[in-house]
């Protein structure tokens, strides 16, 4: 499902995008430019003591175009209490792995319908593991928004820190609108004509191997 995955970031294949979003894939196949449309969310804490009220954040700005989810990464800045120490590098790489922080994440689409990607408080380090396997499968439409919470669940090694979510999407450049307005079945048939899908009896929507 993923192409060249690296820690914290997922990269869906064209085959995956074509399966879930044939109109988007057809536009790209026809030469419409595909561009990143990433968003950040930051949660600032003045104390690393457990029991504080959760910090809330949302996208700024909201999603402004049909955008396919391609991955999420999380980090903590500053990442530890070892500034200027040889252990700082170790702290940088490890604090987000065993963070002592809990997070939730809810999305609202352009029709004001909410759905919970992470409904219950979940260890921060698990968020990419939960969401990245779904890269390329879902998208947010115009005016979509995200709402997140992070709370301190275990004593942090330093006060005054910020948790960052980087959520990456792909959107279409100029000329993509007419493709997104197509019927899904029409886009699949055109992709089949271009060799991306097989369209024998019962095979519509099955990607061609290596396409």
Structure characterization notes:
This protein is of the alpha+beta class and 211 residues long. The chain has a domain at 35-173: Jelly Rolls (Sandwich). It has six helices and eleven strands. Strands 1, 2, 4, 7 and 9 form a five-stranded antiparallel β-sheet that branches. A hairpin with a 7-residue loop joins strand 10 (197-198) and strand 11. Helix 1 packs across helix 2 (22-29) and helix 2 packs across helix 6. It is elongated.
Topology:
Elements lengths: L13 H7 L1 H8 L4 E3 L2 E7 L9 E4 L8 E11 L10 H7 L6 E8 L5 E10 L3 H5 L7 E2 L4 E8 L8 E12 L4 H4 L3 H10 L3 E2 L7 E2 L4
Antiparallel strand pairs: 1-9, 2-9, 3-8, 4-7, 4-9, 5-6, 5-8, 10-11
Features of the shown structure:
single chain, about 210 residues, alpha+beta, Jelly Rolls, five-stranded antiparallel sheet, four-stranded antiparallel sheet, 6 helices, about 20% helix, about 35% strand, elongated
Task: Describe the structure in brief.
With 211 residues, the chain is α+β, with helices and mostly antiparallel strands.
Task: Quickly count the helices.
Answer: 6
Shape call: elongated
The sequence of SSEs as H and E is HHEEEEHEEHEEEHHEE
- Major sheet: 5 strands, antiparallel
Named CATH topology of the domain at 35-173: Jelly Rolls
Low-confidence stretches: 1-6, 200-204
How large is the share of residues in beta strands? Answer: 25-35%
The CATH first-level class of the domain at 35-173 comes to Mainly Beta
